[in-house]
Design goal:
- This protein has ten helices and ten strands.
- It has 353 residues and is α+β, with helices and mostly antiparallel strands.
- A hairpin with a 4-residue loop joins strand 5 and strand 6.
- The longest helix is centred in the N-terminal third of the chain and has 27 residues.
- The protein is globular.
- The protein starts with 11 loop residues before the first strand and ends in a 5-residue tail after the last helix.
């Protein structure tokens, strides 16, 4: 396991604040009310995360080597965490589809990291995987709080159950992998890299679960999460950033695909959910150029950089790009992998030298 100094877990949500901010200003109270309550709850949980970081979280025993230890809790529409345990490792599926999806999603994440990268759980040392479902009422988000996963049921108007897309589950757990490795600062370009890495591994978890090649994958993050009334397909598109949704209420997807469109903003921790579209698109370009299963070569290169110990907490896009080029050469030599990675960053306007 690779860790960096200044270990500081962060509170990370799948729905960006700028999306909830816009919803909170909607004229329809059925849309504005849940968004405002979600923003308030997120602010509370973010503060609680900071306090836990200062005071220290309770030690958690590791699971048996190479085997997951999952526990799903039910918050019963309250906010006390973790809630009531409803399914433990090895238990048969119950009647609650949300519980079953959360259990399966934690397992899918564990399997990708173990089988593809020989990583034993998100900390590399068998960390038990805990999740809470049915959190709060009409809660429009899912988050990793530094210790566990939490899923809302959505309001049914804009967002559906947050356990539906397996890549949402994988995205949030991947924040845990980053937390235990590079521990990228959650602001500006380092924060956008943090978000992008979660999108990358979230997408790979979905593709691994479905057995898809890079060409077969949709490269969408959160497909199936938007309610039928929303004009859109997902929260984000790695293939075509900026096209995931264009809706009267949500507005237009603001993600850029290249540095020419880089967004400078003080909101969203300096645009961490917005500018992540640039490294996201670079990964898509590299993975599709290489073809086959994206977790095998492009994913391996990205994983090598995340866990290799050279990625600084304040890394910029150019720092990460340079390290992917070095990792491609170190693992695969001066072949098509190196060429694909180099050209991908060139196309999104990020220098690798």
């Amino acid at each position: 396991m690779t860790t960096h100094g200044g270990f500081e877990p962060v509170f990370c949500t799948i729905v960006p604040p700028h999306v909830l901010d816009r919803l909170a200003r909607a004229e329809d109270p059925a849309l504005a009310g849940p968004a405002r309550r979600t923003l308030q709850r997120d602010a509370f949980e973010r503060t609680r995360r900071r306090l836990t970081t200062v005071l220290g979280a309770a030690a958690v025993p590791s699971a048996a080597e190479g085997r997951p230890r999952r526990t799903i809790h039910d918050a019963r529409h309250g906010t006390d965490l973790p809630g009531h345990p409803v399914r433990a490792e090895g238990d048969e599926p119950g009647r609650d589809a949300t519980v079953n999806r959360a259990y399966a999603g934690l397992g899918a994440t564990f399997e990708l990291f173990l089988n593809a990268y020989r990583r034993d759980s998100i900390d590399g040392d068998g960390l038990p995987l805990n999740a809470t479902v049915h959190y709060d009422r009409d809660y429009n988000n899912a988050f990793w709080n530094g210790e566990q996963m939490v899923f809302g049921d959505g309001d049914g108007e804009i967002f559906l159950d947050f356990t539906i897309p397996v890549d949402v589950i994988g995205h949030e757990l991947a924040h845990g992998v980053t937390q235990y490795t590079a521990n990228l600062t959650y602001f500006g370009q380092p924060g956008a890299l943090n978000e992008s890495l979660s999108d990358v591994f979230g997408a790979l978890i979905k593709q691994y679960t479905l057995g898809q090649t890079a060409a077969e994958a949709d490269w969408l993050i959160g497909a199936g999460l938007l309610a039928p009334r929303v004009t859109g397909t997902a929260l984000r598109s790695m293939k075509a950033p900026g096209t995931a949704y264009d809706d009267d209420v949500l507005g237009k997807d603001p993600q850029p695909a290249t540095m020419d469109e880089f967004v400078r903003t003080g909101r969203d921790n300096g645009g961490v959910h917005i500018n992540s579209g640039i490294p996201n698109h670079a990964f898509y370009l590299a993975a599709t150029a290489l073809g086959g299963h994206a977790w095998e070569r492009a994913g391996q290169i990205w994983y090598d950089v995340l866990t290799g110990g050279e990625l600084g907490q304040q890394a910029l896009f150019a720092d990460f790009a340079r390290l992917t080029v070095e990792a491609a050469r170190a693992r695969f030599g001066d072949g098509e992998e190196l060429d694909a990675v180099s050209k991908a960053w060139e196309r999104v306007g990020v220098r690798t030298l």
